[in-house]
Design a protein that fits this description.
Number of helices: 15
Strand order of the largest sheet: 4-10-9-8-7-5-6
Order of helices and strands: HEEEHHHEHEHEHEHEHEEHHHHEHEEEH
Largest sheet: 7 strands, mixed
Shape: globular
Bound molecules: 4'-deoxy-4'-aminopyridoxal-5'-phosphate
Length: 391
């Protein structure tokens, strides 16, 4: 029988798992405007007659509101003027260029590591990093709620995988104790978890790693820029140094791309062995220019003020981080709640399987320094009215 993708889509729709495609007009920031062709938005005109295509955006990881910052834009333009467009090849062939080296050095200095290596996205960083580090005969210990990119990196690795319950350091300790003493051990965790917004006990992870000769790999995708001195992340805020940090430029840093920060030896190893680095064309100079401008902003008073703003919004919600999960349960119910919020002027996404476990569908609210106090206060009042319960 010929394969029918229409039938597969119908099965998804039946389970309320279809991912809609909405198209933005203009830039995104504290508010977002949708093209009118997104007819199923359900918010084209609100009950009080406002144009519902422009909504307060609580569904973006642009935590500091840097995505349309003029410094990032001029960084991009200047880089393009001096370095042109496409890099033409992977960095191992002829694609490497001075600005990219400069960016990596700036990242390493900012985070206090010897070296950093560019990847074209956080997804590509994790799927390149994990199999390059953990080889056949090695053991990976991975938090149950790690991001899909880490999960896929684990799948690509030939190491033995041990998944420990979310943030359960006692279970991790038992797993490490029972692990045969062959091969190397790697502990993989996020610092701020992407869908739950809760925070790992990185100091305890470091302690366990030291006790068991394990390598600690920390994904700070949702933390860098936002927390810790000069936005250097949760590990630094907790006073510990992981062996490897993964960061992305696509969230608080307002651009695109990612990096791994580590020792010179680890980075040289990845340069040789991380397939998503070796076999990928080097980035467009404009992207690199905007990333460098974002890193240069991190130690400034302006960035500190943005972080303080974000912290105030987080505290107002009594949340652990800028990610506020509103766990609803059934997929259809989470979709209905997101629609209610859209009708009230707030764009929040219903996150459903496979991003989260079945039965834990949620509205994922994301706070940003770009939001005004009034926008956050109104959101909080709305959430209360609709029965929001803190996790
Ligand atoms: N790691 C984590 C924890 C993430 O949440 C994400 C993005 N959602 C990534 C990595 C991937 O980063 P990028 O969006 O740059 O591919």
């Amino acid at each position: 029988m010929p394969i029918s993708f229409r039938e597969r889509l119908a099965a998804l729709a039946e389970k309320h798992l279809i991912r809609e495609r909405y198209t933005r007009q203009g830039t995104q920031g504290a508010t977002i405007s949708w093209e009118r062709s997104n007819a199923d938005l359900g918010a084209l005109t609100t009950s009080d007659g406002r144009d519902g295509t422009s909504l307060v955006n609580v569904s973006s990881n642009d935590y500091l509101g840097l995505a349309h910052h003029p410094a990032l834009q001029s960084g991009a333009i200047t880089a393009m003027a001096s370095h042109g467009n496409g890099a033409g090849a992977s960095r191992l062939l002829s694609g490497n260029f001075a600005l990219l080296d400069e960016l990596e050095n700036a990242v390493a200095r900012w985070l206090g590591f010897e070296k950093a290596l560019w990847f074209s996205s956080g997804y590509l960083a994790n799927i390149g990093l994990v199999p390059a580090l953990a080889e056949e005969g090695d053991h990976i210990f991975s938090d149950a709620l790690n991001h899909a990119s880490t999960i896929d990196g684990c799948r690509l690795s030939k190491a033995t995988l041990h998944i420990y319950p979310h943030r359960d350091v006692a279970a991790l300790e038992r797993a490490l104790q029972h692990c045969p003493n062959t091969g190397h051990k790697f502990i993989l965790s996020e610092s701020v978890f992407s869908m739950d917004g809760d925070i790992a006990d990185v100091a305890k992870l470091r302690e366990l790693a030291d006790q068991h000769d394990a390598f600690l790999v920390l994904d700070e995708a949702h933390a860098l820029g936002c927390y810790g001195p000069q936005g250097t992340g949760i590990a630094r805020a907790q006073g510990v140094t992981p062996d490897v940090i993964i960061g992305t430029f696509g969230k608080a840093l307002g651009s695109q791309g990612a990096f791994v920060a580590a020792s010179q030896d680890v980075i040289s190893w990845l340069w040789n062995r991380a397939r998503s680095h070796v076999f990928a064309t080097a980035p467009h100079p404009a992207v690199v220019g905007s990333c460098l401008a974002a890193i240069q902003l991190m130690p400034t008073p302006e960035a500190a003020a943005r972080r303080a703003n974000l912290r105030r919004h987080i505290d107002r919600f009594g949340a652990a981080s800028a990610i506020v999960p509103w766990i609803i349960g059934a997929e259809a119910d989470a979709l209905a709640m997101a629609k209610k919020l859209a009708d009230a002027g707030y764009w929040a996404q219903a996150v459903r399987p496979p991003t989260v476990a079945p039965g834990t569908s949620r509205v994922r609210l994301v706070l940003s320094a770009a939001h005004s106090d009034e926008q956050i206060e109104t959101l909080r009042a709305l959430c209360q009215r609709y029965g929001f319960a803190q996790k």
